[in-house]
Specification:
homodimer; 377 residues; alpha/beta; 11 helices; elongated
C-alpha cells in the first residue's frame, strides 16, 4: 500500500519552527495579560501539536466535537471544554466521558437546554459542569449579557442540580474586522460582555468563577483582559492567510502549507496546473472579502518563499490553477512540469481537515516526523 | 469508543431509493446515446456505491487520485482511468499498480509529460496506457483539438514507446451554464472537441480508439454523442443543489443529506442553530452564482421534505445558522431544541468528503447500513 515514491502530493507540511514561534508569541500574550490559555484543539486535531499548545499534558484545552474530546482524553487531556452548544442527545455521551474521569465542560444558552441538562442529571447522576454562552457580537449563539434570560438560564441550571462554572463567549465577528484597531475594540467588547454577564450572575448569587473568552484575532490584539480568567484560541498555532490579512500575523508566520506538484500549463493564459485542488485546499475563500484576495491560496516555492503574486486563482476537486493575482501573465517556465510548490491556506482549520497527517519539518533536534490527524465526528 | 447514543450528529445520510433512481436515469441516458458509461468514483469513494454505478465489478470507472485507484483496485476494479494530468513523480506508482494487474490509464496534455512517460517506460518496462487530455472549454487542462501540439504530444508518446489509447475531455464549464439549452450546447462542444482531436490523431496514423467525454450536466443534456465511445460522470449518483440549480435534477432527487441537531435559537433574528457547520457541509458555495442561492444548504425536516425557504445562511466550523432565505423571519418554534433536520448539500463531492461513512437508508430488502468512505491521498 505504501506508494513507491517518498513524497506523493498533495501533502500537508507543518513548519515546526514557525509553529514554535507562534506558540511562544501567544503564550507571552496571555501571560502578560494575566490570563490562563485554553488552546482550542479544533485546528490541530493531533496530540503532538496539542501538547505543545497546552500548559500541561492534562490541559486545559477546548474542543469542537465529542470525537475530539474522546481522542484527546484518550491521550491524557482531562480539562476540556466542548465549545458548541450541547445537543440534549449528546448529554449521555458527555456523562460517560465524565464518569471515565474526563472533566469535560459543556456550554448552553437557553432555559430549554438547561432543563435538558436537568433531565440528564436525573437520569445519569452526573451534575455536569456548565458554562453559559454569552453573545458578544451578534455572530451566532449565546444570550446577551443584558438579557433577562441570562439569569433565567442560571436559575434553570440551579433547579437542574447542575454545576454552573461560569460564562464563555467567542467574538467570531473579529474575523470581519478591517483594522487591528477594530479587532482591539472587538476584544474589549468580548471582554466586557463576558465580565458583565459573570458580574450579573454573581450578583444574583451564582458562583460563576470562570470567565472564558477568545478568538485568535481578539487574543492577539486585546489591550486588557481584566476580569477574564481564560482565553481560548486555536488557529494561532498555524496561522493562515486570513490571519495575515487581518494583520494578526505575517505571511512568514504561516506554519502550514500544501505541497503540490506541477502537472501542466496553459501557456497562453499564464496558468500553471498543480495536483492540489479544493479537496486539498478546502473551498474556504476567507480572503475574498479582505483587501488582498489570495484566491484558494498563496503560492510559495518548495523552500516556502512566496512567488510574487502567484495565487491559486481557481480550483477543481484535484486541480489547482495558479496564475498571477494581477499584472502581466506569469512566466510558466519558472515552474516546469514536476516542480514542487507550497501553497499557503486561507484557513488552516479547513485545509488541515482534508488531510490525515502532518508532515513535520524543523523539529528541534528531531528528525522529520509524520503526525496523524483525527477528523470527522 | 462507540458513543452511547445510536445517532450522534452530524451524520451523512444516503437515501438509497433516490440513488437507485439517479443511477437508472444515467444508465438509460448512456444506453440511449449508445456510449459506454465510465462512472467517476471521486464523488462516492466507496465500493458499495461504486458497484451500483459500474457496468461490471471490474469497471470501467474513473478516479481522481492514486489512493482511490489503490482502494478500488483492492476491491476488484481493474479498468480505471486516473483523470488528473499525471505528475512525473507518480509514474512509478502507476507502473506498480499496472504490474499488479490494474489496467490504470493515465492522462496528459504536453510533450514534456509524454517525455516523462518515456523515461518511465525505460525505467519500469511498463508501456502505460495514455489518453491525451483535450481542452474543450478553456476551463483548466488540456490541449485544444486544433492545436498543432496535439500531434506533437502523440508523436512524443510514440517515441516514448507508450500506448496511446485515445483522447479525453471534461467540460467543467458546464457547471456555469444558465440553461439546459446552454448545457446541451456545451455538451456538443465537448463532443466535437474530443471527436475532432481523435479524428486528427487517426488521420496522422495513431489508433486512438477511445473518445472519452463527460460531466454530469453534459451527460444529462447531450443530444448526440456521435463518435464518442464513453462518458464519465460522478455526481449524478447523489446529485446536489448545484445540479438542481442547473435543472440537471430536481431537489427531490438529491440522495445525500447531513443530519443535524438543533442546539439553540436566536429568537429575535429568526435563527435556528444546528451542530453542523462548514466542517460538515464544506465551504462550497456553488449555488451563490445561481438563480437561487441556497447558502450552505437547503434545510429539510427529518423525513427529507424541504422546509419552505429555510437555508443555512452562515456557517462556522461546527455551527450552522438556519434562517429564511427571504421574506419574514422563520418561526423558530417549528424547530425546538433537539429537533433533527436534514440539510441538502451544494456540492455532494465536497460534503461527502467531510465524513468517513454513509448511513444508508432505503436499501431494497436490506437493513440500513453503514458504508465506509475513503478520503485523502
Amino acid at each position: 500500500m505504501t506508494p513507491p515514491t517518498p513524497v506523493e502530493t498533495p501533502l500537508l507540511l507543518l513548519d515546526a519552527q514557525r509553529m514554535r514561534r507562534n506558540l511562544a508569541r501567544m503564550r507571552e500574550r496571555t501571560d502578560s495579560l494575566g490570563v490562563s490559555l485554553r488552546p482550542h484543539l479544533k485546528t490541530c486535531k493531533n496530540i503532538d501539536v496539542a501538547r505543545r499548545m497546552m500548559s500541561t499534558a492534562a490541559g486545559p484545552a477546548a474542543v469542537s466535537t465529542l470525537k475530539e474530546a474522546e481522542y484527546f482524553f484518550e491521550h491524557g487531556v482531562t480539562d476540556l471544554m466542548y465549545c458548541v452548544g450541547i445537543a440534549p442527545s449528546k448529554l449521555e455521551h458527555v456523562a460517560a466521558l465524565r464518569r471515565r474521569g474526563c472533566d469535560l465542560k459543556i456550554v448552553l444558552d437557553s432555559v430549554e437546554a438547561a432543563r435538558a441538562v436537568g433531565q440528564a442529571v436525573r437520569s445519569t447522576g452526573e451534575r455536569f459542569a456548565v458554562l453559559i454562552e454569552v453573545d458578544s457580537d451578534g455572530h451566532r449563539a449565546g444570550v446577551r449579557a443584558d438579557d433577562p434570560r441570562l439569569l433565567d438560564v442560571a436559575g434553570a441550571l440551579r433547579d437542574a442540580g447542575a454545576s454552573l462554572e461560569g460564562v464563555m463567549t467567542h467574538a467570531g465577528e473579529s474575523y470581519n474586522c478591517a483594522t487591528v484597531e477594530a479587532i482591539a475594540e472587538m476584544a474589549e467588547r468580548e471582554r466586557a460582555a463576558a465580565v458583565d454577564a459573570a458580574t450579573r450572575l454573581r450578583a444574583a448569587g451564582h458562583a460563576a468563577p470562570v470567565v472564558s473568552v477568545g478568538s485568535t484575532p481578539t487574543a492577539t490584539c486585546a489591550r486588557s483582559l481584566e476580569g477574564v480568567t481564560e482565553v481560548r484560541a486555536g488557529v494561532y498555532v498555524f496561522h493562515d492567510l486570513v490571519m495575515a490579512g487581518l494583520q494578526v500575523c505575517r505571511v512568514g508566520d504561516i506554519a502550514l502549507s500544501v505541497l503540490a506538484t506541477v502537472i501542466g500549463h496553459q501557456r497562453d493564459r499564464g496558468w500553471v496546473l498543480v495536483d492540489a485542488g479544493w479537496m486539498a485546499m478546502s473551498r474556504d475563500r476567507g480572503t475574498a472579502r479582505q483587501r488582498v484576495d489570495q484566491g484558494y491560496g498563496l503560492v510559495c516555492d518548495a523552500a516556502g518563499e512566496p512567488i510574487d503574486g502567484l495565487v491559486m486563482i481557481d480550483a477543481n476537486q484535484e486541480h489547482g490553477i495558479l496564475a498571477s493575482r494581477e499584472g502581466p501573465a506569469f512566466d510558466v517556465d519558472r515552474l516546469p512540469l514536476g516542480s514542487l510548490v507550497r501553497i499557503l491556506p486561507n484557513h488552516a482549520c479547513a485545509t488541515a481537515a482534508a488531510f490525515d497527517a502532518y508532515h513535520v519539518r524543523g523539529l528541534d533536534g528531531e528528525p522529520d516526523a509524520v503526525w496523524p490527524r483525527m477528523n470527522g465526528w
